[in-house]
Each structure stands twice: as structure tokens, then as C-alpha cells.
Amino acid sequence: MNGNTPYAGLPGTTDAGQRALDDVPELTTDQRRTLRGDLAEITRRVRTYLPDEYVVGAEVSQGSGGPEATVAVQPPAGHPISAGFQPDLEGEEYITEEDCEEVARGLAASAALQVKQAVPDDVTPTAR
């Protein structure tokens, strides 16, 4: 039955369970630049929600299913938080305005929660 699927693999060309290289979309230079600009906008928004102690970064990589975009936040205490997604290369926008805002708010909230969970309850707050 493996011969019926696009992932069966061509003998000598594609291993079983892997996609053929022709099936995986590649980013052009302009597409990569546009996607990086969209990610820069998300990181800028995340930084507006968080203090300077949080480190925010983004990257574009090539995954097994095509291009992938990742935005990550390293809080001053706790575990790093990341959001990854595959951009829509067929649409006019790779990452929509709504997605930018949703990802930024979600990352900022999750990073703040990581710090809250990492800091013990008996710490005296410096301000109210």
C-alpha cells in the first residue's frame, strides 16, 4: 500500500516516509526578506509588552514541510517560550496583522507567566 501515497518514496531518489525535494517549497530572496520583516514586527510588538530583561528573537528556517518561522522569548527566570508556524506563501501577506498581534500578546503573556511561576511566593515586591 505504500505505493499509493506521495510519501512512499521513489527507489533511489526519495526515502520512504520523506517528501520529494520538488514537493517542498523554497523561499526566494524577496520572500525571505519579507518574512523576516514580518517576524521583526512581531518581535517589536513583543518587546513593547515586556521589560528589557526579556530577550526576544526570531528566525526563518527550512523544515521538512517547507519554510518555518519561529519567534522566541527568553524570560529572566523560567523556561523559554516560542511560537512557530508555517507562513502562507500563496497569500498576499505571509503573516497577517491579526496573527502578528495574537502571537505577540500570547508570547508576552506566556513569558510573564514563566517568570511568575519561577519566582517563589515569599519574595517581597519592590513596588505595587
Question: How does the SSE layout of this entry go?
Answer:
Layout: H1 29-49, E1 55-63, E2 66-74, E3 81-85, H2 97-118
Antiparallel strand pairs: 1-2, 2-3
Structure report:
By secondary structure, this protein is of the alpha+beta class. The chain is built from two helices and three strands, in the order H-E-E-E-H. It has a three-stranded antiparallel β-sheet, covered by helices on one side. Helix 1 packs across helix 2. The chain is elongated. It starts with 28 loop residues before the first helix and ends in a 10-residue tail after the last helix. 17% of the residues are buried. The model has no long low-confidence stretch (mean pLDDT 80).
Query: What share of residues are in beta strands?
Result: 15-25%
What's the number of helices? 2
Helix share of residues? Answer: 25-40%
N-to-C SSE string, H for helix and E for strand? HEEEH
Overall pLDDT confidence? 80
